[in-house]
Amino acid sequence: MTEMEQKKAVVIGSGLGGLLTAAQLAKDGWSVEVYERLSLIGGRFANIEYNGYQMSTGALHMVPHGIKGPLATMLRELGADFDIVQSDPMAIVRMPKDLSQTNYKDGFEDISYLDFKKHLTSKNKVMMVLLTLGFKVGLIRPKKTGFKTWYSKYIQDDRIDRCADSFAGWALSTTADEVTTREMFEIFHNVYRYGGPGILVGGCQTVIDELVRIISSYGGTITTDTEVTKIIVKDCKATGVVAGGKEIAADLVISDIGHKEAWEICTIDGVEGECASHVLALSSSVFKDYEEKLDAMKPSAGLKICFASDERILPEGCSLMLTPYSNRINGLNEVTNADPGLAPPGKHLVMCHQRTALDRLSEIDEEIELGLQDVKDMFPDKNIEILMVQVHHGRWPVNRAFSGTDFGNKTPVSNLLVVGDGAKGEGGIEIEGITLGVRDAMKIIRDMN
């Protein structure tokens, strides 16, 4: 793209999806301007320093597929400098010593995820292999059926149910049945393809700092403390935004604030907000369908408990534990096993995640107490210090749409695309899904131009 042909893109929001898109657009020759209403860059993928610990604004300093996954691959293509330490083994699972137990209070053992199958009956081992192969070769193609509902037709085992919910809760902030079987198999396929998780050396902030550097190196700008209050639409085409009270023309508008939030600030042919959506809804079934999808969008909520320990919690080299027999916590990451610099000398930093049901948000204090009790039950002999509890829901959710229910990057308005946690790619866990969604958006943009 020559200087005469250079087009302008405005990106609303500086979360990971927005910055990845801005960096790629800038590298592709676009003039890029990013506007962020907060003073913080990075959204839920930034660091917070607390008493010498590098906490995060939401994420776990973790990349779900590590050095071979979509995020790491895209960062390398962009020229980012970063380091990821793979978890080895990929994960361990905390199981009760007596499998008739329903919690950890009477003792437990930690096993590699590879050894979990030893706890299964011969029949269920065979059935799991057959179902997996059947899906891989295309003989089994379940679509909207919930994952647990589907596999329970063939396998009945409380341990499998618990581990499925533990994985889904840790990775997606859902139960195993709130995810479709197709989406879950796509997730498993990506685990086989790319591998397991790794921890970012330096935490989330290293990626954000590199993306900011890349955007700036190509002439792009990032403006903080500046809210985009309007997306200007003329003849069903986005032509710019109003940011900080000023009208800014653009050839392309990217929303990293969600589908709903972008739609609410669309000003269409001079008609704003809710009125604008009614104007569009009356004019085309396409707009009606879009609004119905927005109304049906269900965000996932989660709760993160961060604690410090004087001793290592997980085996050296391993950074992920799934906890299927806890009351609330689904899994945890000991990030200092990969990067001791994320905590003061001699300290270990652990981040726990638990799915929070949408109908339990009014009892969030109770949910927190149940999570804190889990920490006590799982590590009764450790000197634990609770550092921080974070709750993510509403318009600051874990995901704006349950995994598998994202409805893509496009909107009914041309030149207005959405990226981020409501536009994840198929089979993408959290930030990997965001990256796959950004890649999908870039394909749309390149096809348009």
UniProtKB/TrEMBL annotation:
Amine oxidase domain mapped to chain residues: 16-431
A Pfam match: Amino_oxidase
Gene Ontology molecular-function annotations: oxidoreductase activity
Transmembrane portions of the chain: none
InterPro entries the UniProt entry points to: Amino_oxidase, FAD/NAD-bd_sf
Domain of life the protein comes from: Archaea
PANTHER family the UniProt entry points to: PHYTOENE DESATURASE
Name of the protein this chain belongs to: Phytoene dehydrogenase-like protein
Species per Swiss-Prot/TrEMBL record: Methanimicrococcus blatticola
Lineage: Archaea, Methanobacteriati, Methanobacteriota, Stenosarchaea group, Methanomicrobia
